[in-house]
Amino acid sequence: MSMNAVQKEMADEAEGFVTARLAGHWFALPISAVHEIFPLTRITTVPLSPPGLIGVLNLRGRIVTALDTRQIMGFPPRKDPPNIAIGIERGNELFGLAVDEMGDVLTSLPSERERPPSNLDKRWRDVVVGVQRSEDQLVLIVMVDRLFDDIVSLVAA
């Protein structure tokens, strides 16, 4: 196989991920699942909302449900309100997953990923499908469908 064919095959298998930090941990969501990144501003709280729901906001004419990803995933609350979110569209609704910090785009080959550690907290174990080494940290690769299954069950409770 020629070098160009090998490079093309590797490029076809490589996946892109958006990385973010949450409570000191790096995680990654597939780029294909991310609608956009946006600031969390002008949030309207929703009376009697379930835990994990920060509120709603208007993003260029669309109503976005802002979710407290820290609370949903079992981490302690931030000292200050979150100011950035990852937009994920589910059905016809846009959700904003509040994160502490945005990272870079990570390009990863399946062969570079490892299985998730068995000692992960159950909430993370249910949504993490792999671990990728990136420079000096480990990045947890999250399956968006599983994450939203957990979010829907927690927020709807």
The profile of the biggest β sheet is: 6 strands, mixed
> What name is given to the CATH topology?
OB fold (Dihydrolipoamide Acetyltransferase, E2P)
Estimate nothing, just give the exact number of structural domains. 1
Helix content: 10-25%
The first-level CATH class is given as Mainly Beta
Oligomer: single chain
The CATH architecture name reads Beta Barrel
Element-level helix/strand string: HEEEEEHEEEEHEEH
Q: Strand portion, in percent? A: 35-45%
Structural class: alpha+beta
- For the biggest β-sheet, the strand order reads 8-1-2-11-10-9
Overall mean confidence score, pLDDT: 86
Distance between the termini: 55 Å
- Write down the overall geometry: globular
Q: Give the tally of β-strands.
A: 11
DSSP summary: helix tally: 4
Structure described in brief:
This protein has helices at 3-13, 69-72, 122-125, 144-156, and strands at 15-22, 25-30, 34-39, 53-59, 62-67, 84-90, 93-99, 101-108, 113-114, 128-134, 137-142. With 157 residues, the chain is α+β, with helices and mostly antiparallel strands. The chain has a six-stranded mixed β-sheet.
Write a structural description.
The protein has 157 residues and is an alpha+beta fold. The chain has one domain: CheA-289, Domain 4 (OB fold (Dihydrolipoamide Acetyltransferase, E2P)), CATH 2.40.50.180. It contains four helices and eleven strands, in the order αβββββαββββαββα. It has helices at 3-13, 69-72, 122-125, 144-156, and strands spanning 15-22, 25-30, 34-39, 53-59, 62-67, 84-90, 93-99, 101-108, 113-114, 128-134, 137-142. Strands 8-1-2-11-10-9 form a six-stranded mixed sheet. Strands 3-6-7-5-4 form a five-stranded mixed sheet. A hairpin with a 2-residue loop joins strand 6 (84-90) and strand 7 (93-99). It is globular. It starts with a helix and ends with a helix. Residues 5-11 have low confidence and may be disordered.
